[in-house]
Predict the 3D structure of the following.
Amino acid sequence: YLLDAAVMTEAAHDIRGSYYYAIHVDSQLVTPDRNFENEPESGDVERLLRGIRNNAVDDESENGGGLPTENPYYNEDSPVSAFNFSLMSPGRIFTMAGEQYRYLKEMPEGNHMIIRNSMIPFTSFTNQTNELNTWYEELHQDVRNIVSHVSIPSPAPGVPHASITWNEAGGRHWLPSNLNSHVAVANDLTTVATTGGSQQAFALSLADVVSMSGPGLAFPNHAQRSTGGQGNNNGWWLRTPGETGAAWGIGRSAIGTAGQLHASLTSGNGGGPVNNTSASNGVRPALIIHQPTN
């Protein structure tokens, strides 16, 4: 609610007898894809609602915060120079140089992790690296100029689906409860390379997704882990292998597992057989970009 307090004016002290002042609130709670009754078509309230629906509300702005003024609107295709990534909140959607992204997190020394907002369909886990390289080569040069060097393990450390136990407090297959028992997999967090490395796109690891899942993070719930593009709530591969012939991925709504973590060869819940291709499952390229702090 946007009303913090109501204060009586001095004239109220001249009222004789007993009185009280009340505000009746008729609350309307709707899902992001629906509108409120008599919703304004312009003005600050309209901008605020639009920003909330598209994860495009910046924490800090010239008007004191809350309205998406410092960065372009989520669907406004803008050049690299138009963005101030240090003002973005995790999960914010933005469109840069012909691609729509989700902001994931701020990293040390002016680096920021972002991911394509929709997946590239019909891409198997086996062909994921080739698709990532092709996508990166086709990026606008201004974007490639700000990509930081990373070192991605090949192959990445893996863990069988059956070896993971779950903390179901956030929902089914939301967060592993024993990931730290699998040290190599837990330590596979993407960072900027201190030496060497290359400017490239990459797939997130299981540890990356787990570290960015929860309130106030890039993936606050199952729905926010899923991806649009070729339809709603599609699945996407991670880089973490599962048992032999399988790999980890994010589930999709078509089979009722949207946003869940899976890697079973037989479950078909998301992830799964490494050669599997589908219109509702694919690769979701991520980048670490560098923008010097002022």
In short: Confidence is low (pLDDT under 50) at residues 59-68.
